[in-house]
Amino acid sequence: MIILACIATFLATLSGGLFALRFKDKLHLILGFSAGAVIGIVFFDLLPEALSLGKNKYSAGEMMSVTMTGFLIYMILDRLALLHSHDDDITNHRRLKGTLGAGSLSIHSFLDGIAIGWSFQVSPSLGIAMALAVVAHDFSDGINTVSFLVKEKGDNQEAVKWLLIAASAPVLGVISTYFFRVPEAGFGLLLALFAGFFLYIGASDLLPQSHAQYPKLWTTFMTLIGASVSFIVTRLSGF
């Protein structure tokens, strides 16, 4: 069963990314959706799960401080890349931003795989439930991974490379659980940190980019759709 879960997560992420590549001429709508989905992941998935896992060791204020730290770390990395980019090197800077975004999502997907692996170790039924929850939002993860790179002028080859990495990440996460285990509270801190990363990506990057040069009505509508999808998926999955 765990093998089927790995295959399902891989195919779901891959399908989402290929969908984004196929319709990249509608990039502003995809970016709008991604902005809502990423911000939705923060508030409907990462933060609630982080608070739940860390509640026996860390206060809510401490967990939020970790989230803020993640936000500031990502902001500093983004600004440093910009400061060290010259006008004739702007393409490399944009690709670096795309890589940071895609890389963050890939690590998040790796953590999803860890959650699946640990759940199966507790019980098969819990493992199946967790796998379904991850698969449900992996399609959006694939869209988000590709949109980061396409938005920053990455070529299709670069986008496909990172899409394969993101699709493989949950599988590698599942495999890793056979070799190590992170305490629940520590895992909660990681989720809180990545909540800060994603909050910066969604609110400070994707959202402004999607509305910058395109019709506001449809991009706003797609942002609402993206947030709604995140909400519905997390509620239906029970996580």
Number of helices: 8
Report how far the terminal alpha carbons are from each other.
20 Å
- The number of distinct β-strands equals 0
The radius of gyration over CA amounts to: 17 Å
Shape: globular
Which blocks of ≥5 consecutive residues have pLDDT under 50?
83-88
How is the main sheet built? none
How do the helices and strands follow one another from N- to C-terminus? HHHHHHHH
How would you classify the helix and strand content by structural class? Answer: mainly alpha
**Could you tell me the mean pLDDT?**
79
The domain tally reads 1
Q: Strand content of the residues, in percent?
A: under 5%
Helicity range: over 70%
Strand and helix layout:
Elements: H1 2-22, H2 27-54, H3 60-83, H4 90-122, H5 124-151, H6 156-176, H7 184-212, H8 216-237
Helix pairs in contact: 1-5, 1-6, 2-5, 2-7, 2-8, 3-7, 4-5, 4-6, 4-7, 5-6, 5-8, 7-8
Describe the overall structure.
The protein is mostly helical. It has one domain (2-237). It has 8 helices and no strands. Helix 3 crosses helix 7. Mean pLDDT is 79; it is low at 83-88.
Short note summarizing the structure:
The protein has 239 residues and is an all-alpha fold.
Can you give keywords for this protein?
239 residues, 8 helices, mainly alpha
